[in-house]
Amino acid sequence: MKLTGAQALIKSLEMESVEVVFGLPGGCILPAYDPILESSIRHILVRHEQGAGHMAEGYAHVTGRPGVAMVTSGPAATNLVTPLCDAYMDSVPMVAITGQVGTPFIGTDAFQECDTVGITRSVTKHNTLVMTAQDIPRAVKEAFHIATTGRPGPVLIDVPKDVLQNTMDWDWPDSVDLPGYKPNTRGHPKMIKDAARLILESHQPVIYAGGGILKARAAEALRELAELTGIHVVTTLMARGAFPDDHPLCLGMPGMHGNYTAVTSMQRSDLLIALGSRFDDRVTGKLDGFAPDAKIIHVDIDPAELGKVRRPDVPIVGDCRLVIEELVTAVRDLMAGGTTAPDRSEWKARISGWQEKYPLAYEPHVEGDALKPQMVLETLRDSAPDDCIVVSGVGQHQMWASQYWKFNHPYTWVNSGGLGTMGFSVPAAIGAKVGRPDKMVWAVDGDGCFQMTAQELTTASMERIPIKVAILNNSYLGMVRQWQEMFYDERYSEVYLSPDTPDYVKWAEAMGCVAFRAEHPEEVQIVIDKANEIDDRPVVIDFRTDSNEKVYPMVAPGQTNDGIVVPPFQEGHHGQGGR
Amino acid sequence: MSTATYKHHTISVLVVNQAGVLARVSGLFARRGYNIFSLAVAPTEDERFSRITIVVDVESATIEQVTKQLFKLIDVVKISELHPAESVERELVLATVKAAPEVRSQVLELVQIFEGKILAVGPDEVTVSLDGHPDKVDDFEELVRPYGIVELQRTGRIALPKLERQAPRLRAVRGKVS
Hints:
The complex is a heterodimer of chains A (579) and B (178). Chain A has 579 residues and is α/β, with parallel strands linked by helices. Helices cover 37% and strands 16% of the residues of chain A. Chain A folds into 3 domains: 168 residues, Thiamin diphosphate (ThDP)-binding fold, Pyr/PP domains (Rossmann fold), CATH 3.40.50; 169 residues, TPP-binding domain (Rossmann fold, 3-Layer(aba) Sandwich); 172 residues, Thiamin diphosphate (ThDP)-binding fold, Pyr/PP domains (Rossmann fold, 3-Layer(aba) Sandwich). In chain A, the strands form 4 sheets. In chain A, strands 3-2-4-5-7-6 form a 6-stranded parallel β-sheet, with helices on both faces. A 6-stranded parallel β-sheet of chain A has the order 11-10-9-12-13-14, with helices on both faces. Helices cover 29% and strands 38% of the residues of chain B. At the A-B interface, loops of A face helix 1, helix 2 and strand 4 of B.
C-alpha cells in the first residue's frame, strides 16, 4: 500500500491506539493535517503550542497512556520546550510531533527553521529527526515504546515537510529493535530479601512513596505492603493519591511545605523505604542533615536515581509494582518463618503525638478580610465527589491544594512538581478532562499562573471540555511574596499583580465560560454549588483571597528538616523537630 | 591499585552509529556538569556501532553516576569502565617542532628514542608523529618543548581492556567478607 509520509504518520498514531492529539497546524506540519480529516483520531485545536504540551501531559497523568502533541516547526517547536521539560522532570509519557523545514533546506536558516532535535535533546528521553517517509512507522513505534516503558518520559519526532509529502510503502513493524534500550523491571532477588529483613528489623520505619508508584500502577501493591507491615506512608507531591489520605497509616505530604508529622517522622526514622521517589531537594531539605539515622532501601526503575543523592543501603532497580509485590512475598516468608518485627508501639505513639500537636491548621477568617485560601479549598473539597480530579498550577495555591485536599484515589492529583511550571493548570486540566470525561475536573490556580495560559479556556469552550477553574486570586505572585516577606525583609519587589485587572469574570465570559466571583465567606459555598451543577461548558470562579496568608509549615531553604517552622499560632517558631 | 590515586577514569562507550549520537553524549556531560579530559570517537569492527572513548575527570562526578546517566541514552549500547591499571591505553600525537640545523640531530634523537616517525622536514622545522601510552606522549611533549613547539595535536586517548586481568575475583570479594 502506497501512502504519503503524512498518511503514514497518522496511520501510525492510529496503530498506537491514539484517540486524541492536541495541536496547532502551521507551514511545515500542514501535510499531516490533511489526513487528520479522515482519521478516527480526535484533534483538539489549542490556542498556543505550550497548551498542547500541557494538555498531553494532563491526559497522560490521569489515563496512564501517552499524551500526543503535534505542532509545526520553529516557534511552535520552541513553544513546546517547556511542556517537554516538564514531562521529562515528572516522568510523564508523551509523544511530540513537530514539523521541520524540508530536507534540502535544513541548515540554511530557512523560514521557521530551528534545530528542534538539538534544542530538545536535554529535555526529552529521546528524540529523532526522520529523514525518509519509509522510516515514519518505525520512528512512531519506537517513540511510543520509549515513552511508555522503563522510566516514562517525553519523546519527540521531528518530521521535515518533504518527508511528509513523499510516498512510501506502508509497513508496520512487529517489534522494536533498540539494542541500547532494555529497561530492567525485575528486582534482584537477593536485594529484595535484604530489604525484607531490614524492614522487619527496623524500629522506626517510614515508607517514602514517590511518583513512581503511580507510573508503575503500584498503588494497590503499596497498600498491601503498608498494611502487612503496619508501616506509615508519606506521599510526595508527585504521589498524592497513591496511598489514600484517609488511611490510618497515611502521613500525607513531606517536604518544604509538608505537614509536620510527615517531615518529622522521616527525619527521625531508622529506615526509609523509598519507592519510586528520588530524594528531591524539596523533600530532603539540607541534604547532610536529612534523616541522619535512617538506613535506606531505594527502589526505582531508573538505576541512575540509586545513589544520585543519597547512597542506599539496599538499592533495587526495578518496576515499583513488581518489586513491591515481591517484597510483600519476601516479608510474608520471613514472618512465616517466625521472624517478627520489633515492638513499634512507642514509635507509633510519637507519630500520633506529632499529629495531635501539629495538625495542618490556619487562623480563622476575620470579618472584613479577604477569604482564607485554605477555607476555599476545604469547601471545594467537601463539595466535590471523592474521585474528583484536581489539577494545580505552581505556587502557594499548589501547596495548599496538596495539603488540604483529601486524595483517596490514585490519578486524581495532577501538578507540575519537578519543573514547577506556572501556567500548567488550565491546559493540564483540559487534557485530564479529555482523558477522563466521566470525572469532575477542578483546576486550582493562582492569579499569576492563570494569566500565563488562560487562553486555553477558549479551546475548552470551543471543544466543549467542561473543566472548572478556581482562581485563588490574592493579587500577588504569592509564593514569591512569601519569600520576600520571610527572607528579604518584607521588601516586595515586582510581585504585585492586581485583584481586578484583568477582570477575571469578564475575561472568562469572553472566552465562553460561565464565571463567578466570591469575596465573602458566605458566597463561597454558593458559587461552588453553582459551578458544580454546570457540565456543558467551562466555569471559572474568581476567589478573592488574603494576600497575607502564607504556606505553613515551612522548611526554609538551606535548612535541615529539623528546622521546620509551624504557623506562629502553633507554639511559634522552633527547631529540632520531634526530639 | 586504588582508584583514589587516579584523577581520571576511562570509559569506553559503544553507541549506535547514528547522526547526533556524539552530541547526545557530549551534551549529557555538559548538562550534568561532568568534565571531559579527552574524547575520541570512531567506527568499530561492526559498522552499526561506534566507540567513544572518554577520559572523565572523576573529581567532578562519581564514575558511577556518569556511567548510569550515559546508559540512559537510548543510543548507548554498552559501557565499559577501563581502570588505568587494567587497560591498554594509546594516544597519537602530531607535532611540528623547531629544528634548526644546529639542534636538528638532538630533536631527531629524541624522536628516535620515543620510536616516533619523521613525517616532514623543512629548513628549520620537522613534523613528527608518535604513538604510545599517554604518559609517554606527555614525556615526549615535555622533552621537546625546549626546542620550540610550533604546532601540536594529540588525538586523545583510546583504550581497550587488558586481556589478562589480574585476579579480578579477589578485587570483587574485598570488603564484602563479613
